[in-house]
Specification:
Number of strands: 9
Distance between the termini: 38 Å
Number of domains: 2
CATH architecture of the largest domain: Alpha-Beta Complex
CATH topology of the largest domain: Flavocytochrome C3, Chain A, domain 1
Order of helices and strands: HEEEHHEEHHEEEEH
Largest sheet: 5 strands, antiparallel
CATH superfamily of the largest domain: Succinate dehydrogenase/fumarate reductase flavoprotein, catalytic domain
Shape: elongated
């Protein structure tokens, strides 16, 4: 849980039990890849690992499982927690080499490093032969392009079961780095339905006249799949202002 340990959804549970209208997919969420060594709660943004698009991500079998360069990081960072949650033991590993150093936001804990892939695999306790095979196949599949980590560049792979769409460069320059990754959940897309006045909707009947919701509580009205950096704050600000205005109007 990336925030306070007290954010357990109790109020949402009470509202749904009281037959207010449910909205959103509980299987979808804002969940980022955080350092697996970070605290269980309140890790903060410095526990988020942003090296993903600059290398590859493997599971504990040493296999890639998603396109690390699918799109700009602000559009994709919040899906990686969910992707990792679907992997064996809910863990992944971000692998980069020296060329990626300095190109992403520093983390609170340093990466695990080694001059060899074999030793790096030993440090993260995954099969060295599998990781080496994955890296060799990845390196061989790269189509040369002009690398630009701030644009959708032409560095990609071809012929892999899961290709990388952008920012694909050979992992060949030691020291090699690894971050263990765990799902870091911020909020799910399950919430209560609201109208354009931020009034919580009753499952059957008219909207509530004195219960209003803003932010993550009602984010499922806006978010279906995916996330764009800042949308959560935008929902909170916009509907917070509406909810405050409408609550004041009701109380006056």
């Amino acid at each position: 849980m990336r925030g306070t340990p007290y954010n357990k959804g109790n109020i949402l549970r009470q509202l749904l039990d009281a037959k207010f209208k449910q909205v959103g997919d509980p299987g979808q969420c804002h969940a980022v890849a955080i350092d697996g060594r970070a605290p269980a709660y309140d890790g903060g943004i410095v526990s988020r690992v942003d090296s993903v698009p600059l290398g590859i991500v493997v599971n504990n079998e040493g296999k890639r499982f998603f396109d690390e360069g699918e799109d700009f990081w602000p559009k994709r960072y919040a899906i990686w927690g969910r992707l990792i949650a679907a992997q064996p033991d809910q863990i992944g590993y971000a692998i980069t080499d020296a060329k990626a150093d300095g190109l992403f936001m520093p983390t609170v804990l340093p990466a695990l490093k080694s001059t060899t892939i074999d030793d790096l695999a030993r440090q993260i306790d995954i099969p060295a032969d599998s990781l080496l095979k994955t890296i060799n196949e990845f390196n061989s599949a790269i189509v040369s392009g002009s690398f630009d980590h701030q644009a959708l560049d032409g560095c990609l792979t071809e012929g892999l079961p899961i290709n990388k769409s952008h920012w694909a460069r050979q992992i060949d320059t030691p020291p090699y780095s690894a971050y263990p990754l765990r799902p870091g959940i911020t909020f799910t897309y399950l919430g209560v339905a609201v109208d354009d006045r931020a009034r919580v909707q009753v499952e059957r009947g008219n909207p509530s006249e004195n219960i209003f919701a803003a932010g993550e509580m009602m984010a499922g009205n806006i978010l279906g799949r995916g996330y764009l950096a800042g949308i959560g704050m935008t929902i909170g600000i916009v509907f917070g202002r509406i909810a405050g205005r409408e609550a004041a109007r009701h109380a006056s």
